[in-house]
Specification:
CATH class of the largest domain: Alpha Beta
Bound molecules: zinc ion
CATH superfamily of the largest domain: Zn peptidases
CATH architecture of the largest domain: 3-Layer(aba) Sandwich
Helix content: 25-40%
Shape: elongated
Distance between the termini: 25 Å
Order of helices and strands: HHHEEEHEHEEEEEHEEEHEEHEHEH
Number of domains: 2
């Protein structure tokens, strides 16, 4: 088969794939349990020559396509393609006829496009099964938005679903802002940040607001910690390896004339290297403990690692660029100059399998920088890009399987 075949075949599926995406868009489900989504995807895969299994702890779908042109059964390479399927607790503010029918749930991150795209790739590759020199694993994943569905699927064996370890893994994410519709983007090395959580509770001793000298007021101490963390970033971290700490929760007190016993705050921490991730854990703890001690108070600090940095394998990222340029033309590919700041649990797949994650622009607004971004209740994803997303994933699998020197 040639690349033009795959693009043409994907184009012929346009109506079907867009309809599937819009069906999913109306029934957004959150977290690890996505029963209606799973049912819809299983129906969409019906009739394809796939070995399908579903998760027990989460409504995942793993589908294996056995290539018909392997030296011997189970001898060829294995490529894994991933699409996440979960939605967000966002109340959609859209006038589209296919807007969410579930209250306070919306496909605001475009995972409905990923799901439809991966179904498209499964159909495209199934049609060419006989010519494939290896196997393809399709990973339909729930719970990307903070539930770590990827790790749960890894625990369930998705990386060895074909009976041997995957040799390469790819996935893509659509963007409702920044990247114009139809533009593919990728880069070697760090692509998305690590995401961690910092929880701090300052323990003082409450009392009358007019007599602070008889208390240990935790409020100014907590405020000092919040600002000291920002200073810590600028003074103690290399500016070429960025760190973001955002305090999104700050809580203390019940009444203006009462000094509370404690004050607490929570922060999200984003880093782009495992060194910095570890260093923030250590230094943020020291800063908070030091300030508490200076004021004669106690502090409880908890630091939870969530998602690691999403790191693209350099060779695989270059291969993604080559494939996008040859399939869609030079003007449809952008080598991202810098990583993006959100985080991804596909990072756990890439810790185990060489591969790459890429972006696909789905922003049809004239000004891509002011368009509502992913996670906004107004986010609009141009679903005309789905066939190209499907063709890209299928093409990556076809070419990667054919790369004879590719075996680890
Ligand atoms: Zn997302």
């Amino acid at each position: 088969m040639s690349s033009t075949d795959l693009r043409a075949d994907a184009e012929a599926m346009r109506e079907d794939l867009v309809a599937l995406r819009r069906e999913l868009h109306q029934i957004p489900e959150i977290g690890l349990d996505l029963p209606r989504t799973q049912e819809t995807v299983l129906a969409a895969l019906e009739g394809l020559p796939l070995e399908i299994s579903t998760g027990e702890k989460l409504s995942s779908i793993t589908a294996v396509l056995r290539g018909g042109a392997q030296p011997a059964e189970g001898e060829g390479p294995v490529v894994l393609l991933r699409g996440d399927m979960d939605a967000l607790p966002v109340a959609e503010r859209s006038e589209e006829s296919y807007r969410s029918r579930h209250e306070n749930a919306m496909h605001a991150c475009g995972h409905d496009l990923h799901t439809a795209g991966l179904v498209g790739a499964a159909r495209l590759l199934s049609a060419h099964r006989a010519e494939l020199p290896g196997d393809v694993v399709f990973m339909f994943q729930p719970g990307e938005e903070g539930w770590n569905g990827a790790s749960l699927m890894i625990d369930d064996g998705v990386l060895t679903a074909a009976g041997r370890p995957a040799d390469a893994a790819y996935g893509l994410h659509v963007l409702s802002a920044i990247l114009p519709s139809g533009i593919f983007a990728c880069r070697p090395g760090p692509l998305m940040s690590a995401s961690d959580a910092l929880y701090v509770r300052v323990v003082g001793a409450g009392g009358h607001g007019s007599m602070p000298y008889t208390t240990l007021d935790p409020v100014p101490a907590a405020c000092e910690m919040v600002t000291a963390l920002q200073t810590m970033i600028t003074r103690r971290f290399n500016i070429f390896d960025p760190v973001v700490i955002t305090v999104g929760v700050l809580k203390a007190g019940t009444k203006r004339n009462v000094i509370p016993d404690d004050a607490s705050f929570e922060a999200t921490v984003r880093t782009y290297s495992s060194e910095n991730q570890e260093r923030v854990r250590q230094l943020a703890t020291e800063v908070c403990e030091g300030i508490a001690a200076a004021h004669g108070m106690r502090v409880e600090v908890r630091y939870d690692a969530e998602y690691p940095v999403t790191v693209n394998n350099a060779e695989e990222a270059a291969f993604v660029g080559e494939t996008a340029r040859s399939l869609f033309g030079e003007e449809r590919y952008l080598e991202s100059p810098n990583p993006l700041s959100p985080s991804e649990d596909f990072s756990f797949v890439l810790q185990n399998v060489p591969g790459a994650y890429l972006f696909l622009g789905a922003c049809s607004a004239e000004n891509t920088f002011t368009a509502p971004s992913n996670h906004s209740p107004l986010a609009f994803f141009d679903d005309r890009v789905i066939p190209d997303g499907a063709a890209m994933l299928a093409e990556l699998a076809v070419r990667r399987l054919a790369r004879t020197d590719g075996r680890a």
